[in-house]
Design brief:
This protein has helices spanning about 5-15, 40-50, 60-75, 90-105, 130-160, 180, 185-190, 200, 205-225, 250-265, 265-280, 300-305, 305-325, 330-335, and strands spanning about 30-35, 55-60, 80-85, 110-115, 165, 230-235, 290, 295. The chain is α/β, with parallel strands linked by helices.
């Protein structure tokens, strides 16, 4: 495909969504990041109906997370869900979360990385990064790195094929990394700097973070040995009613809110795509693939272009360096499980 035209987008949004795919998750563990609201919460509701042994809701807020836990049980009758706290805007919190899972010693069959924020103005985290870049494109991969050994151990111990699902978006078709950025040695550092994050450069920030999600999944999959018993994939839930738009401002924000009201899927409809990516399809045909409409599709032309391939490799090297400095255990994981160059 490579391109996504406006009328194709409209047609997709007006297409009735198929019912959610069901699977038997008996004995399995499912972990969803960003599970207390929107797509993440609706996906956990669907997973709860499939009888998982453990269903972990990873949330930033204790109060909101507990409210989601209570609603989940009220809506589904599932009483074994667990609330684990993690703030992706805080590297220390991410490390503590990963340490907890490591010491927990349990299996991990499905990891859905759904947490994301949309920002239109520069707000640094305590770690010094622009917030949405840290949450969407540094901490999300950091969790993936740290939990990759658990996914692989689960596969080896239980003879299963775990999945890592990163929630991307079709908006990655509408943005490219500016030439003046990918000419720098440090793309992420440049994008996250206060100097770069002017009001105009922040306007496409969310779409850019979703493009970086696509690059991450492709780069990780390309560097996992083909025999690795883990499926890494990315999914587009479509244009959905979401709290991501709660801070929409200005003319662009007004247009987005209007389009969302007219064309947006419900969060439950969008969550069906997350569930499909986690339990549907032929697993080996999903490795590193972009899923949209319950099928694999080609990513944007820019991703496949020589500039995109160069940027992907450059981003990977920089990300591994950043993550390894944030958490030295990442270095050992990359060395043990991931090849230095694409397979």
């Amino acid at each position: 495909m490579g391109r996504l035209g406006f009328f194709t987008f409209i047609s997709r949004q007006l297409t009735k969504q198929p019912p959610v795919l069901k699977a038997d998750l008996t004995g399995k563990t499912v972990l969803v990041l960003g599970a207390n609201t929107g797509l993440g919460f609706e996906a956990t509701k669907h997973f709860a109906t499939m009888n998982p042994a453990r269903l972990i809701l990873a949330c930033r807020s204790q109060s909101r997370g507990q409210a989601a836990l209570d609603k989940l049980q009220a809506d589904t009758g599932y009483s074994k869900a667990e609330l684990w706290l993690v703030d992706l805007a805080d590297f220390d919190s991410v490390k503590q979360f990963a340490d907890r899972f490591e010491s927990d010693g349990g299996r991990l069959d499905i990891l859905v990385e759904n947490a994301a924020i949309a920002a239109s103005t520069y707000k640094p985290t305590k770690d010094g990064w622009e917030a949405s870049l840290q949450v969407n494109d540094i901490s999300t991969p950091l969790v993936a790195f740290r939990l990759l050994p658990a996914l692989i151990r689960t596969a080896e111990k239980y003879s299963t094929l775990p999945r890592l699902v990163v929630v991307a978006s079709e908006v990655h078709f509408f943005v490219e990394i500016p030439k003046e950025v990918y000419r720098h040695a440090d793309i992420l550092k440049t994008l996250g700097s206060k100097e770069y994050c002017t009001d105009s450069n922040m306007l496409p920030r969310y779409t850019l973070t979703k493009l970086l999600n696509v690059f991450f999944v492709r780069a990780l999959n390309a560097r996992l040995p083909p025999s690795t018993p883990v499926i890494v994939t990315m999914v587009n839930p479509g244009f959905c009613h979401s709290e991501l738009l709660r801070d929409a401002k200005g003319i662009a924000g007004t247009i987005m809110l209007f389009m969302n009201r007219i064309l947006g899927f419900t969060a439950e409809e969008g969550s069906r795509q997350l569930v499909w990516a986690a339990v549907g399809g032929e697993p080996d045909k999903l490795r590193g693939e972009y899923i949209s409409g319950c099928q694999t599709e080609e990513v944007a032309d820019f991703v496949l272009s020589p500039q995109g391939v160069k940027a992907e490799n450059q981003l990977w090297d920089e990300l591994v360096d950043i993550a390894g400095k944030v958490d030295p255990r990442v270095n050992a994981i990359v060395e043990q499980y991931i090849t230095a160059t694409p397979a």
